[in-house]
Amino acid sequence: MTNHGPEKKNGRTQTQVVTMTEEEINQFRIMLCENFNRLELNDLAAGIGLTLTEPANLVDRELARELLQMAEANGRLPDLVEECYYLRPGRRWSKFS
After folding, report:
1. Is the N or C terminus of the chain more exposed, i.e. has fewer CB atoms within 10 Å?
2. Sign of CA dihedral 44, 14, 70, 29
């Protein structure tokens, strides 16, 4: 993962996610599935300004994969990591920032 300098947001230092390796994307997708259900994944997307198109075979891991792809394509990975951290504190989201 490529990081740029630390920023202050919500009173804590944060780094900006630019890209994640394929392995990091897979780990992040697994964490999303372990910590959020289908409705919450849609809420996560909406919280960072994205709308998911629900796949025909609606499975949480497919929705999580779409969320990650859209977030990366739209430069919203830092926002997604921040939103996950906010909604599920105590998890290891920081390894993706």
Report:
1. N
2. negative
pTM equals: 0.75
Give the span between the Cα atoms of 27 and 96, in whole angstroms: 9
Q: What sign for the dihedral angle of Cα 28, 30, 34, 37?
A: positive
What's the token pair of residue 6? 């630390």
Alpha helices by DSSP H, the chain = 22-35, 38-47, 60-73, 77-87
Considering the domain boundaries, does residue 14 fall inside one? yes
Domain count, the chain: 1
pLDDT for 9-57, tens place per residue?
443 344 454 578 889 999 999 999 999 998 899 999 999 999 988 766 6
Residue 97 belongs to some domain of the structure: no
Contact 15, 97 (CB under 8 A): yes
